[in-house]
Amino acid sequence: MGDSPDSAGTPPWEEDGQETAPTAAELEAAGQSAMFGDPVPPPAAAAPAAPPAPPPTEKPAAGAPSQPYRVLARKYRPQTFSELIGQEPMVRTLANAIKRDRLAHAFLMTGVRGVGKTSTARLIAKALNCIGPDGQGGPTIDPCGQCEPCLAIAEGRHIDVIEMDAASHTGVDDVREIIEAVRYAAVSARYKIYIIDEVHMLSRNAFNALLKTLEEPPAHVKFLFATTEVDKLPVTVLSRTQRFDLRRIPTELLQNHFGWVCAQEGVEAEREALHMIAAAAEGSVRDGLSILDQAIAHADLDAEGKVTAERVRDMLGLADKGAQRRLFATILEGDAPALLAGIEDQYALGVEPLALMRGLMEFAHRIALAQVSGGAADAPSEEERAAIGEWAGRIKPGQLHRMWQLLLKGHEEVRQAPDQLVAAQMALLRMLHAADMPDPGALVKKLEELAERGAVAGASTAAAAGGDAPAASGQGAPAPAAGMAEWRALIADVERAGEHFAASIMQMQVRLVELAPGVLRYARAPHFQEDIGPQLRDALLAATGQRWITEQVEGEGMPSLVEQDEATRADAKAKLRAHPLVEAALATFPDAEIVEEESTPVRGDRNWSRHG
Questions:
Q1: Taking the alpha carbons of 179, 182, 184, 187 in that order, is the dihedral positive or negative?
Q2: Which helix H or strand E contains 601, and what residues bound it?
Q3: How far is it, in rounded angstroms, from Cα 274 to Cα 380?
Q4: Would you say 218 and 83 are in contact if contact means Cβ atoms under 8 Å apart?
Q5: What pLDDT score was predicted for residue 367?
């Protein structure tokens, strides 16, 4: 009312002719306070904080005293997609989607720890909200890193990029806050983006509450999920997201990346040391950078802080590669005392038995790969490549695979044993004694050669003997009687008549002398004493319907059916033992025995016991 016309509608910060408009950072802080409450005020005794300086666009020099130290895993977090190593297929897919304006409303990044899931989510947030240095840019796969949205997202202070840890916000109330907030447009960015890390930790009710919003979010909202356990997510969530499976980073790529980091830090590192760190990282960039950070701190200052393989080996508790090669050589040479001495030396140096077994398994694996590829072995040092190449040409594949199986079994035994050192010694001694055993294929070939020589020698002996040599089969056995077929048929009739006990007596005890219609004369072995005549007559009457004359006579008749079967089996066994291949096997293994497979007796061939 009393204000002058010139001052009507003038904002308070423009009074008195001063241009004091709030900055973008102050506006974002005001928005954060409106949505999430005021920040915790500083202590009363503390001086008022100075306005934040603009973040540097370049990494500070290594060892700069004015900057607090940051671990390598945070310092070298990728800020552009070009710095994200090992995930080219995902980057290509995102680039094509941005160029064609086919961006999904929800993305899911999954993979093992340390491969870049959260970093990828932040990079996607940058790519979608980047406006370029001139403020006129649109979504791009190559965010500039200089505009205010890029800088704010990189520093984690952008009001429209909300990161939530699902491990500490698991309930449905936390999801309800998201559902209420997505209705409002972004404050200063192109898209409002929700990054939910470890999303599998959300409760079942929280997932159900999020489903409808996740399926049909407003056009200005994007959801970015990250998880290491994608199998715990409901199928209804998976079907509403575009999934990217981030790969483990190969060891060689990790090794090159760690070498670049060392160059940026001004630290010299041996190639073998970087290889060991990359192998210990198991495909995780963050794990590898943490180990590299520790290795740099572990390096001796006397050696100008150089990261050496020896220091890394001591730090990780790994076995010396040279000692491992010597152990492997003693196993191949069969030198048991040297093997035990080598194990004791490694154990005294602090190498765990499990690590020792894993190192030997790694050697066996590399030798097998060198045999298959036929090229140079994959090894960090020239000495190791030469040793693996020499073993790949000398060890047979069957022998190598048998050694692998023994090492694998030994590793399991060492892991479960109460005394791992003793278990490792016994497992490697067993492997030492089995290393020089021929493989089954060579053994079969050797037996075939022995059989061929035995067959030739047997043929020569038979030719020299001429026709004077007696027949080996059936020698001394009486010729079959003319009525043997009728006798077998008669026993079958008795069996069908239900006289099973009489049929068994006829098979086992009766030595046929004469068989005519109504007449049966037979002999028996001397140890059979009981009178079987009445049983035979009753059985024959029941089988044929007529009365029979049965008479036991003195002398020798035809062998009983059971005796004939036993003679046949004995003759077959003798022929089997006389086979050249069996003779060669018995000559090679003197303590071997021929084991007959027991078959289930069938009707007419029962294993009846004798009665005496």
A1: positive
A2: none
A3: 9
A4: no
A5: 86
Position 42 confidence tier, pLDDT thresholds 50, 70, 90? very low
Q: Which residues pair with 107 in a beta bridge?
A: 224, 242
Work out the average pLDDT over 131-142: 87
Return the pLDDT at 227: 92
pLDDT at 444 over 50: yes
Element (H, E) at 224: strand 221-227
DSSP H helices, 334-396, are 336-348, 353-373, 382-394
Q: 545 — alpha (psi -120 to 50), left (phi > 0) or beta? A: left
Mean pLDDT of the region 551-578: 82
Nearest 5°: the CA angle 129, 133, 136 is 65
What number of other Cβ atoms are within 10 A of residue 299's Cβ? 21
| Whether the Cβ atoms of residue 196 and residue 166 lie closer than 8 Å to each other | yes
pLDDT at 491 over 50: yes
d(CA 172, CA 240): 19
Handedness of CA 51, 56, 59, 65 (dihedral sign): negative
Burial of 152 (0-12, 13-18, 19+ CB in 10 A): buried
How crowded is residue 529: how many other Cβ atoms within 10 Å of its Cβ? 8
Neighbour tally for 203: CB within 10 Å: 14
pLDDT digits (tens, 9 = 90+) for 325-345: 888 888 888 888 998 998 888
Predicted local distance difference test score (pLDDT) of residue 611: 37
Strand 221-227 and strand 192-197: the pairing is parallel
Residues whose CB falls within 8 Å of the CB of residue 353, separated by 6 or more in sequence, listed in order: 343, 347, 414, 420, 421, 423, 424
In three-state form (DSSP H/G/I as H, E/B as E, the rest C), the secondary structure along 105-173 is: CEEEEECCCCCCHHHHHHHHHHHHHCCCCCCCCCCCCCCCCCCHHHHHHHCCCCCCEEEEECCCCCCHH
- Indicate the residue type of 611: H
Measured CA to CA, the distance from residue 406 to residue 228 in angstroms comes to 34
Asked if 520 and 550 count as a contact pair (C-beta separation under 8 A), the reply is: yes
What pLDDT shows up at residue 195?
92
**pTM, rounded to two decimals:** 0.55
The length of the chain in residues reads 612
Quote the pLDDT of residue 188.
Answer: 86
